[in-house]
Amino acid sequence: MAENEHVPHVRVAVIGSGFGGLGAAVRLRREGVTDFVVLERASGVGGTWRDNSYPGCACDVPSHLYSFSFAPNPEWPRTFSGQEHIRAYLEHVTDVFGLRPHLRLDSEVKMMSWDPARLHWAIETSSGPLTADVVVSATGPLSDPKIPDVPGLDGFPGRIFHSARWDHDYDLRGKRVAMIGTGASAIQIVPEIQPVVGRLTLFQRTPPWVMPRVDREISPLERRLHRALPFTTQLRRGFLWGIRELQVQAFTKHPDELGLVERMARRNMARAVKDPALRAKLTPDYRIGCKRILLSNTYYPALTRPNVEVVASGLTEVRGSTLVAADGTETEADVIVFGTGFHVTDMPIADRVVGAGGRTLARAWGGGMKALRGATAAGFPNWMSIIGPNTGLGNSSMILMIESQLNYMADYLRQLDVLGGRVALDARPGAVDDWNHKVQERMKRTVWNTGGCTSWYLDASGRNTTIWPGTTTEFRTATRRVDLAEYEVVRAPGATAGPGESTTGTRTEARA
């Protein structure tokens, strides 16, 4: 992008307006930073909770834990909230914290390039260009739907859509529906649409472990108590958090301890599914927890209904309106619904980030995603991600991890202010590699690596670049402060090194 005095410039550009992006915006304002924008490709806020509006969409983390600690919500209607309530909460956060003036909606980021001469990011969006000293990428891993490349799919005469792009104008009543996938979305969709469709065929490549969903209405008395005595909301949140912290060791160090949970899941299935043949199809052959444990009271009963067929095989070919599974099973369908997840380990945004050496983030991550403390990547100065590599969780609330990364973001900006002048921080390759090596070493013992499954946590080479192999407390401690020894200080050409820095061209290394 050529230098142009009419191109707006901001201190910070935040990309995305889901939990990560809105959380970053709130934290920036609390830190006294008001010169920022939130770039959002859609016409409203909410991220994945805006995009996923399929029938039955709800969260599998308790409501009081799946919300910001700085914005408790005493009005949650249920212990596990639905999509509409979570999206309303995010709209409420946007209004209460005065974020709307910072929003730039319908502004998809097309490309962002680091300008080493001017020490800023040049950003091209669908609504025009801008530049920013710092970029905070909060696009999230569950933002770009993945539809498998199935031979013949283009020739399917019916309707096709992904669960995250639900076609609400299409009436499913009486239709022959093929549901592809058995993940978190599918187990919510199936019970909702089963009563109205003519025929429902579930293509199951791998059966999930499903536990009961202990969901109930939060009574008016409870809500009044939380409004009158806010500390009761904090206590409730703290209890939910503590239980999950105690569970972590079973996932990360002692997967064999999950055998009891496995037996509970088998009993849950046996209560609903009496047919031995169907039960055999639905029984996983891997350790529980290797894939995300799903919660539902209605999924198994729906699969026993006369208008439902479970094909224990993945979809491999489409011949007109005939769907062919890997085991040869053929099914006629009027509509195909893909519940096949997202581009998690190959996020499309990485193709749109061009770093200091003219290399894209996708190319830098060609051997697998990795980032220092889940936030910064070598060769990409003043760029950081929220929900970056190895920050995901298998049993608790991602909001806890987001808030930890917001602590890191805030200290990052403070360090830039302390260094003074036109300056940037670039993660040292050695620091990134050291951090990634430690994470991957810890990962070797976890159920996600040893449980005998292939999950979306793993990249194309089988490395787990998604999950954090520890407690949320450990992650918060690791991201409380920025260690300048892990960064190179980048100054404008010709600038003088500051105190405590040794100069190498325009790059300096901060002395610990």
3D architecture notes:
This is NAD(P)/FAD-dependent oxidoreductase. Keywords: FAD, Flavoprotein, Oxidoreductase. This protein has 512 residues and is of the alpha/beta class. The chain folds into two domains: 9-144 and 343-510, FAD/NAD(P)-binding domain (3-Layer(bba) Sandwich); 153-214 and 241-338, 3-Layer(bba) Sandwich (FAD/NAD(P)-binding domain), CATH 3.50.50.60. Helices cover 29% and strands 19% of the residues. It has 14 helices and 22 strands. The protein has helices at residues 19-30, 48-51, 83-96, 186-193, 220-228, 230-252, 259-272, 276-282, 299-303, 361-364, 398-419, 429-443, 447-450, 472-478; strands at residues 9-15, 36-39, 103-104, 109-115, 120-125, 128-137, 159-162, 176-180, 199-203, 210-211, 294-295, 308-311, 315-319, 322-325, 330-332, 335-338, 353-354, 383-385, 423-427, 487-491, 501-504, 507-510. The strands form five sheets. Strands 1, 2, 3, 4, 5, 6, 17 and 18 form an eight-stranded mixed beta sheet that branches. The chain has a five-stranded parallel beta sheet with strand order 7-16-8-9-12, with helices on one face. Helix 1 crosses helix 11, helix 5 (220-228) crosses helix 6 and helix 11 runs parallel beside helix 14 (472-478). The model has no long low-confidence stretch (mean pLDDT 95).
